[in-house]
Specification:
The chain is α/β, with parallel strands linked by helices and 567 residues long. It has 20 helices and 21 strands. The chain folds into three domains: 166 residues, Nucleotidyltransferase, domain 5; 100 residues, ATPase, nucleotide binding domain (Nucleotidyltransferase, domain 5, 2-Layer Sandwich), CATH 3.30.420; 219 residues, ATPase, nucleotide binding domain (Nucleotidyltransferase, domain 5, 2-Layer Sandwich). The protein has a seven-stranded mixed beta sheet, sandwiched between helices. Strands 1, 2, 3, 6, 11 and 12 form a six-stranded mixed beta sheet that branches. It has a two-stranded antiparallel ribbon with strand order 4-5.
């Protein structure tokens, strides 16, 4: 595998000149996207072309409370406020002005899970993230009833599980939503959800803009649900598609974001989305036969479909783009966490010997070593399962490093195995989609921090999937940038429809003949001048990965047994 392109990812496009950017921000014409990811809350402020004007971030971690992976709502708001304050500091440092108003605003967060509220808006149970996989019985009943795969992490699976278990709070339910939907509601007063995030709560109908009414009826008729004092459709948020007006930032919402009182209310908001949807937007993967891989704590591949699959498959979720087009989703609970832990160990060693390395230099050097490893990683296997992994039938995760006695255990092969392992469960799931279902895919776009060392993880992924993998200048920006683009698109759509105040969005372009589609906005405005690099599968790399993946599959019983034996 070559690694000639190794270099840090750049900003998606040059920001406007200092005076122009400062004027745009001061006029309230910039657009803000905030994404609550698994390990970081990130913010991106952009102009109408998607050029990044400022960023902010806040680090956080989930907690294991009892047997539930969760984040407290106090941590949610503390993190959002700290992230916004970091963004405001960046605005002052870069542009010499204060952030007092926004042209558009959008909230994104990790998809799925269970956030239950009563009629007073009070939380009824711990927020249950996508990482919780104890809903096996409920998901199986739903999959049988609805004749399609309903994953363990979907909101409806968590709801039915809570009802089946007789949890005390279920009779007092009034509103069920995702993390993005909850934050958006607090900022705007609107109980809505973007269709991409909504498709991880309950199946979307063929119209692509609402929950499936027939399937809602079937689910409502299930004996445990039918006995409840509420109506299932009434619990769920209203579904919106990209570009639709999702409300405006209220005075109370502005104070939640910015307790200093500098931020004024009034910004139009985009439909809140999940991290899968923002990943598709951030990589321009919104048309059939395109797809994207978003790699972080978890990983998922989204492939926009040309037509229906042969039938329900446990490995494949059916969701949508933010515009409502059908998408096959391969989701894995584990991706970079174990890899990051190993690189943290190398960082400690570097400090121990008096040669500390920056994270960027360390990752670049070790990833490049992995690029020089044997194509089959020399017989070294890694299972990166911090949590359970449904794609490979591992109920409880225990990270493992395994090798044969005759394995060629070198640094290069160790790092190659770590990179293969980061995408191991994803490769298993993608086999079901590309080989078994015969789905056609012309290109897979990639984004996430693992791709910052250009060319290395990108080539690994191309070899693993057997599909060209493209990487744009925005690859390291991630979902906050994608959400900011959705906010900018909403503001442009409102302006084109005559529903906005006329504040300039900084794009220098107008939508001719009415509102632009999301696809056209991305193609004509955001990505028109971006430099895209593509890596095709390497013959030797593809063959080596096939050998490695065969051994990986053979060793899965070890990973399953480890959860039973190691506590």
């Amino acid at each position: 595998m070559t690694h000639a392109d190794v270099s840090p990812a750049q900003s998606p496009s040059p920001a406007p000149g200092g005076d122009d950017a400062a004027a745009l921000i001061a006029a309230g014409g910039a657009h803000l996207g905030i994404e609550l990811g698994s390990t970081r809350i990130k913010a991106a402020l952009v102009d109408g072309t998607g050029a990044v004007l400022a960023t902010g971030s806040h680090a956080w971690e989930n907690e294991l409370v009892g047997e539930i992976w969760t984040y407290s709502l106090d941590a949610v708001w503390a993190g959002i406020r700290d992230c916004y304050a970091d963004l405001a500091r960046d605005v002052r440092a870069q542009h010499g002005t204060e952030l007092t108003a926004l042209g558009g605003l959008g909230i994104s967060a990790m998809m799925h899970g269970y956030l239950a509220l009563d009629a007073d808006g009070e939380q009824l149970a711990e927020f249950r993230t996508w990482r919780n996989t104890f809903t096996t019985e409920a998901a199986a009943l739903l999959s049988e009833t609805l004749a399609q795969n309903i994953p363990l992490r979907w909101s409806i699976s968590h709801l039915l599980h809570a009802v089946q278990q007789g949890e005390e709070h279920v009779e007092r339910l009034d509103f069920l939503t995702t993390l993005a939907g909850y934050v958006h509601w607090r900022l705007t007063g609107r109980k809505v959800l973007g269709v991409g995030d909504a498709s991880g709560m309950f199946p979307i109908g063929s119209s692509g803009d609402a929950f499936d009414a027939e399937l809602l009826e079937r689910t409502s008729a299930l004996e445990p649900i039918a006995a409840m004092p509420w109506s299932l459709p009434d619990l769920l948020p209203e579904v919106l598609v990209a570009g639709q007006d999702a409300g405006h930032l209220t005075a109370e919402g502005a104070a939640l974001l910015d307790p200093t009182g500098m931020l004024q209310p009034g910004a139009i908001t985009a439909p809140p989305e999940g991290d899968a949807g923002t990943g598709m937007v951030a990589t321009q993967a919104v048309e059939p036969r395109t797809g994207n891989v978003s790699a972080g704590t978890s990983a998922f591949a989204m492939v926009v479909l040309e037509g229906p699959l042969s039938g329900p498959r446990e490995e494949i979720d059916l969701v949508t783009t933010p515009s409502g087009h059908p998408v096959a989703m391969i989701h894995t609970n584990n991706c970079t966490t174990d890899l990051d832990a190993w690189l943290g160990l190398f960082s400690q060693f570097a400090e121990l010997i008096g040669a500390p390395q920056s994270a960027e230099d360390l990752y670049g050097a070790l990833f490049s070593a992995g690029a020089d490893g044997d194509a089959d990683a020399g017989g070294v296997l890694t299972y990166n399962y911090i949590s359970g992994e449904h794609q490979t039938g591992v109920a409880s995760g225990r990270p493992l490093l395994v090798r044969e006695q005759s394995a060629r255990f070198t640094l290069e092969n160790f790092m190659r195995a770590q990179l293969y392992g980061a995408f191991g469960a994803l490769a298993v799931g993608m086999d079901a989609l590309l080989k078994d279902e015969g789905v056609r895919l012309d290109v897979m776009y990639a984004h996430g921090g693992i791709f910052r060392t250009r060319g290395v993880a990108q080539q690994v992924l191309a070899d693993a999937l057997g599909v060209p993998v493209a990487l744009g200048e925005s690859a390291g920006e991630g979902g906050a940038w994608g959400m900011a683009l959705l906010a900018a698109h909403t503001a442009r759509t409102a302006a084109a429809d005559g529903a906005a105040s006329g504040v300039a969005d900084g794009s220098g372009a107008t939508a001719v003949g009415g509102a632009q589609s999301l696809s056209a906005y991305l193609d004509e405005i955001v990505f028109a001048g971006q430099d895209i690099t593509t890596r095709s599968p390497d013959t030797a790399g593809r063959e080596g990965h096939t050998t490695w993946l065969g051994a990986y599959r053979d060793g899965l019983p070890l990973a399953r047994r480890a959860g039973d034996l190691l506590h």
